[in-house]
Each structure stands twice: as C-alpha cells, then as structure tokens.
Amino acid sequence: MPTVRHITKRVRAAHEHTVCFVPAQYLRVRIDPANVENPYSLSQDMFYGDGVVSVQLRKGFAWDGASIPYWWPLIPWLLTLGLHEWRPGWLAWLITTALLAYTLRLLPWMQKMGRHARAACVHDELYRTRQTARAIADAIFLEIMRLDRVPWDIRYQIYLNVRLFGWTAYKRRSAPAPTAAAPTAGETIP
C-alpha cells in the first residue's frame, strides 16, 4: 500500500518531466459578496496538468478560497497553558515566546487568498470531481504550493491541516447528486 510519502514522490517525479504552469505572482479572481458559500470566481481560464492528473478550470469557476480554520493558531497557545500548569518556569516562557513568534509567522498565510490560492483552487476542483484519490489530490496540493514558492514550513503546516481535516470536505462533496424522478405514464417532460 503506497504511503503519502510515496505518492508525493510520484507526483514530484511527474512534475520534473512536464511543465504544469508558471509559478503564480497572483491569481485573478472576482469576489461576489452575495455568494456566501463560494464568493471567489476565476477571472481567466486556468489549466493544470502533470503526468498524474490534468484539471481545466474555466473562467467563472467559483470556490471558497483556502479553507484554513481560524482556530488553528490557538492550538499551541492552549498547549502552553497546560505547560505552564504542569512545569512553570523559564522553559515554559521560552516555549511560549517561540510559539508566539511562529504564530506571527503563520498569520499572513491564514487567509483565504494568497500565494497558496491557486493550489487551493485546483485542490477544491479535485475534491469536487473526485478524479483522483484523496491522498493524490492532497499531494498535488502540496506540490503546487511548492511550485508557487510557499515557504516549506508554511506549506507543510497547511498540508497537515488538509490531511487531518480534509476528509470531512471530501466526504461531504462525495455525496451523489440527486437524480430526477422518472416520469410516470402520461406525464411529459418539459
């Protein structure tokens, strides 16, 4: 059974032989505040392709941006509260200060749009269409963030979030679409 590490290596090897797209300086989007569920839409066509999967996103493709939970930076602070209760002293304060510095480094990346937005857009499309397994979609997400020059610690932090909590979105979007009931005898289809 291939692990996430093996899948990531396969995706990276496929990228070495093909040109997916040029690293993003920005992603052109329109913001529709009336659309609460998917407020961002692409202002231009976008194509992503490698040896594993290809995705064609048309102008107007709507998605919710990067789905990063805002409570994630609070986890280290909650852990340090327990640390101060368990082992009060200078080491607890040193760890708290280091986590504060790292949290401040994370904050610019905790937004819906940024250098990681193109990876989030392709990732959302892979989750919607279910072209690939979840692990491969997540590995492609990580690789696009690497191509778009997201710093390694930030991209693995975001990737860790996707691996830990992305199963809920994958499961929710995997529900089959409701089908229309077949017409009964004597009924016409409009």
Tags for this entry?
190 residues, mainly alpha, two-stranded antiparallel sheet, 5 strands, 48% helix
Give structural notes.
The longest helix is centred in the last third of the chain and has 21 residues, at 152-172. This protein has helices at residues 4-17, 74-86, 90-106, 117-129, 134-147, 152-172, and strands at residues 29-31, 40-42, 46-49, 54-57, 62-63. The model is unreliable at 17-23 and 177-183 (pLDDT under 50). The strands form two sheets. Strands 1-2-5 form a three-stranded antiparallel β-sheet, with helices on one face. The chain has six helices and five strands, in the order H-E-E-E-E-E-H-H-H-H-H. It is globular and about 55 Å long. By secondary structure, the chain is mostly helical.
Quick rundown:
The protein has 190 residues and is mainly α.
Largest sheet: 3 strands, antiparallel
Please report which band the strand proportion falls in: under 5%, 5-15%, 15-25%, 25-35%, 35-45% or over 45%: 5-15%
The spatial strand order of the largest sheet comes to: 1-2-5
- Helix proportion range: 40-55%
Number of DSSP-assigned strands: 5
Our measurement of the CA-to-CA distance between the termini, rounded to an integer number of angstroms, reads 50 Å
Question: C-alpha Rg, in Å?
Answer: 21 Å
What characteristic shape results from the CA principal axes?
globular
Low-confidence stretches: 17-23, 177-183
Average pLDDT figure:
75
User: Strand pairing plus helix content: what structural class?
Assistant: mainly alpha
